[in-house]
Amino acid sequence: MNKKIRSVFLWPLLLGAATAVNAQKNMQASLWLTKADRSVLFEKQKDVLSFKPTGNNNFTINVDDKQTYQPIDGFGFALTGGSAMHIIRMSANNRAALLKELFATNGNNIGVSYIRLSIGASDLNEKVFSYDDMPAGQTDPTLKHFDLGPDRRDVIPVMKQILAINPAIKILGSPWSPPAWMKTNEDTRGGRLKPEYYTTYAKYLVKYIQGMKAQGIPIDAITIQNEPLHPGNNPSLLLPAPDEALFIKSNLGPAFKATGIKTKIILYDHNADRPDYPIFILNDPAARKYVDGSGFHLYGGDIEALTDVHNAHPDKNIYFTEQMVVEPENSATIDIISPVKRLIIGATRNWSRNVLEWNLAADPDYKPYTDRGGCPSCQGAVTIDKDAIKRNIAYYSIAHASKFVRPGSVRIASNNSDKLPNVAFKTPDGKKVLIVANTSDSAQSFNIKYQGKALSTTLDKGSVGTYIW
């Protein structure tokens, strides 16, 4: 082959190789930043960071997308009845703008991708209710009076607007209490589920899922009971592990199967200090066959307990279903590193497929909440005062993950550090996302290394950065 002909064949190959080398040479990352002094609150930085050979001796976070862990379902909040009440009372234009900011992904919108609803009232409703309340002394074992009524005023219309923005959003439902007539103390607070109403209560949960589906609201998963070992809220229920296991294997699981319901069953839904609770149920073959995974809060225990449950039953999923995240009003600083380290990084590094914070919205007085056990200090991710909006620490901590780590992402390997805790993901479109918190008492300069090249960057003390490339 003469030189001229050979060059015709080789030139495209050489050009492709040069392009690949150039792309690797010019690989760049963007940074979204929050600073502790509030001078920057989840803002994209103008400087573009480039990966290149580096010779400095700074600490290096090595990101390896060849090592993969759990898939990610999303990040978000609880849309309590109180949250929905405040949102639905906003003017139409301002409500639409807020929901777009929360649930869309373009521009500066934060792309919340997971929502938790209460099945009936939670302790952040104006009043306690179930979907089948009866006068004292009366019962309704056939559920003839079942109705989603109270949710039709706020939760359902707000969810319909959310689904119009993001039809694929994951929705988790959690009950705080069965109807009082099903309980041993016949009260909304505390008590236990009467054994004679196990079958009826399973049908009640089926009717909830079917009723929401009829409204165009698909319930992806439910937990059996919010905080089953804390009967002090109003509403609440004491549901020890043996009771929950029996209810799942003898009633709820068979009821879902009989009615063709595909909604996932997530057990426990309480603090990380009792990993024995979900493990006890998952050790029961008759119960575990109906169970998708276990849900956790972090008001007690250590986040590493989620890995203990994963290791005991690695074929079952882990979820992080609630944590209240609050800050002092009008504080000059924002402790953004705390929820990001404990929840966004901590839960996902311990196998959780999601992170949910508590709750989406409240008013300036943290209302509404129920009497006899409601939460008077539960700050919303946003504070709503008529049409005025104030964004709080929960908003910013979730935003650092929700906007970029979209559903279908997978956690990938990165080496952790006491001063720079971090977690890395690969998104469905192939992007890499690294979330880093500087928990030290000084600015930290460090490298992010990927595929043999590194970028050099610095985070001020107390800052959180999300790096995307």
Automatic annotation (TrEMBL):
The keyword Transmembrane helix does not apply. Residues 1-23 form the signal peptide. Residues 72-405 form the Glycosyl hydrolase family 30 TIM-barrel domain. The keyword Nuclease does not apply. PANTHER family: GLUCOSYLCERAMIDASE (PTHR11069), LYSOSOMAL ACID GLUCOSYLCERAMIDASE (PTHR11069:SF23). Belongs to the glycosyl hydrolase 30 family. This is Glycoside hydrolase family 30 beta sandwich domain-containing protein. It comes from Mucilaginibacter sabulilitoris.
